Amino acid sequence: MRHDEQVRLIKQLCTHLDGDTNVDAGGLRRNPTATYTDPAQADREWNEWFRSMPQLIGLSGDLVGPGSFLTNNDYSIPILATRDDDGDFKAFVNSCRHRGAIVETEERGTKRRFTCPFHSWSYDPGGTLVGLPKPEHFGDVDKECMGLRPLPAEERHGLLFVNPDPDGAIDLDWLLGEWFNDEFSTWKFDELELLTTAEYDTACNWKLAMDTFGETYHFSSLHSDTLALTFHGNVQCYDEEGHLHRMILCKRAIDEMRQLPADEWDITVAGLPVYWIFPNVILMPFEVGVFVVRAIPTPGDPGRHVSKVEFYLRSKEEAAKALGLDTADFSEIATNIAQNFGEIIRDEDYVMSSSQQTAANAGSLDEIVFGRNEPALHHYHNTYRELLGLEALPLLDGISAGG
To answer: Is the pTM value of this prediction over 0.90?
Structure first.
């Protein structure tokens, strides 16, 4: 993030702290609880957004050199993502062109060849069929046209995007917009390496998982013994543009940092940026890396999803120096930080999300309410509704017994 923008945002946070104010959506909105339970809506979301649009499957550091690969089975189509011999990012349907078996079963690694375990047809990292046993017995096969089926894939700003639809497209100019395309270029995501990853299979709709990253109003109650020790709750900056939005959470470290000259201010010390990539990705850059959260629906069950939480860092030496830690101790400390963060999401946020889902499944409430201090929730759900062709949730001055 450019420094003039950092200063602008930090000044906003200080103004909120000094005036006991917060961002203001201008009113309240009622959100139908059916958005978390309706099977027809869930099917549309799955087919239109998750199986037919670009999905973030990792960062550049997940594919560190030629022959490196990762597999992904989140979107019903098995995906094999590779870095080919020229260093280019590629993605394929992870299915052998002979009889359709899964070719690569490992989650990640480095290989010169990907060999189907069924009949040992093999492919190079560029997806080309390079070998099959007993070709004189099998019959005439044109290897040029029998490579792994390619998927639309693009690497930008250190982020790896794949469209699970082989006949689909990728439009990162639209997905990231001019705003994110500009700002992401400053974060150097391409220099990061994966440290930890975790998966949480949770009994709540994927949008409830997104909702928990949309406000800090709950910090002083739900996170009183965890995040509230590090963050000022109910204080944030918020900006949106079309289907994009960015929040800045307010760290308690701002109290000391604001005493420094503005040219020494750092947004990752004063706050935690939270970017939303439609429909289901949260990026949270911090001093030496980024947290990535992806909420993935469970097809056929609107009340369940899997969250994948990943923690990426710069080199150990650079990260340890930036945080004032000894390199020898850094890995253990960083791993503990990542695990603690994930456990807060799992044991605090998602416990509440599951509680909300239980009530929604029971039909106990027709609607819930988004407050003036929760603009990201307004934006999430009106963006979802717009792209589903539904009417926007109206802005209300207040909520009354007859309203």
So the answer is: yes
